[in-house]
């Protein structure tokens, strides 16, 4: 594993440059196909509303994957992620338009562990809602 | 309707192995919108120290729910799938998943509890190669909205 970020150059409290990820209906259709999660709340507005949702919502795993991408892009090697967990605290509502929704991810190095590992805590928001909580990755740096 | 607590502790081993292909990894990476070459290009993966392309950290969701799916659709459990949302998810790696892996998944329902009006159910999946090498452990918690009401 060759992460490009060096453990010795990272400090506790260090902020990672925030990033934004767009999510449109077509992304959810692709994600449904690739993941095998065809729950209609992720692509069928009529169905979503009948079960009390405001509209189609993104797969939690799609949002989690954006957080994962944020961490792997920072680390330089996806194989450097040894632990990644989240709680889905709010829904990402995806309107039926060309813009879709935006997921904004930011992160901070919370802790340095042994064996070149660090704990990165993520914040993910869509609109004013915090869509992930307890989002935490352990990454083994170079 | 409350979920049937008798299901806690039950383990479901995937009936067939899951063969990780380069094509599936590329498809999954495309579906999450991630252009990272380490998911697509063997040379880029090798340059990063991997024997072949590796999968994104959240990839095991593709196959880890298959075993538990059998339990979750059992009418005796009493789960109303239409009311299910994802509560929590975690992936703990011994090493990255890579193309060519032939994986076995054993999923155990570890907990069912009521939180307010909702029912929460957690499944732990232990993923190993067919040779018995531990690769990763995943934890999946689903929420049945209104299930405890």
TrEMBL record, chain A:
Coiled-coil intervals: none
SUPFAM superfamilies membership: Thioesterase/thiol ester dehydrase-isomerase
Pfam families associated with the record: MaoC_dehydratas
Domain MaoC-like: from-to ranges: 12-115
Molecular function GO labels: fatty acid synthase activity
InterPro entries xref list: Fatty_acid_synthase, HotDog_dom_sf, MaoC-like_dom
The organism's place on the tree of life at top rank: Bacteria
UniProt name for this protein: Acyl dehydratase
Automatic annotation (TrEMBL), chain B:
UniProt GO BP: fatty acid biosynthetic process
GO function terms (MF aspect): (3R)-hydroxyacyl-[acyl-carrier-protein] dehydratase activity
Entry superkingdom: Bacteria
CDD domains cross-referenced by the UniProt entry: R_hydratase_like (cd03441)
Residue ranges constituting the FAS1-like dehydratase domain according to the UniProt record: 7-137
Entry similarity comment: Belongs to the UPF0336 family.
PANTHER family for the chain: HYDROXYACYL-THIOESTER DEHYDRATASE TYPE 2, MITOCHONDRIAL, HYDROXYACYL-THIOESTER DEHYDRATASE TYPE 2, MITOCHONDRIAL-RELATED
Protein name according to UniProt: UPF0336 protein HNP84_009836
Organism: Thermocatellispora tengchongensis
């Amino acid at each position: 594993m060759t992460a490009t970020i060096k453990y010795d150059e990272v400090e506790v409290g260090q902020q990672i440059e925030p990033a934004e990820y767009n999510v449109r209906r077509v992304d959810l259709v692709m994600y449904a196909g690739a993941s095998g999660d065809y729950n209609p709340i992720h692509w069928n507005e009529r169905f979503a509303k009948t079960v009390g949702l405001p509209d189609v919502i993104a797969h939690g795993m799609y949002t989690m994957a954006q957080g994962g991408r944020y961490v792997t892009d920072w680390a330089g090697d996806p194989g450097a992620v040894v632990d990644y967990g989240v709680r889905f605290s709010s829904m990402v509502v995806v309107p039926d338009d060309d813009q879709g929704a935006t997921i904004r991810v930011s992160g901070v190095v919370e802790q340095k562990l042994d064996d070149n590992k660090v704990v990165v805590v993520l914040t993910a928001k869509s609109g004013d809602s915090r869509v992930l909580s307890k989002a935490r990755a352990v990454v083994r740096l170079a | 309707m409350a979920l049937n607590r008798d299901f806690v502790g039950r383990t479901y081993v995937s009936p067939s192995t899951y063969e990780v292909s380069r094509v599936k990894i590329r498809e999954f990476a495309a579906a999450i919108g991630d252009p990272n070459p380490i998911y697509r290009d063997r040379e880029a993966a090798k340059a990063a120290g991997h024997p072949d392309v590796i999968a994104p950290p959240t990839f095991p969701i593709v196959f880890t729910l298959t075993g538990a799916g059998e339990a979750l659709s059992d009418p005796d459990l009493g789960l109303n799938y239409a009311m299910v949302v994802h509560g929590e998810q975690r992936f703990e790696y011994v090493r990255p998943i890579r193309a060519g892996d032939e994986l076995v998944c054993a999923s155990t329902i570890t907990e069912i509890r009521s939180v307010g009006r909702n029912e929460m159910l957690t499944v732990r999946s232990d993923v190993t190669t067919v040779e018995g090498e531990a690769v990763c452990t995943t934890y999946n918690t689903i929420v049945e909205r209104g299930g405890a009401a």
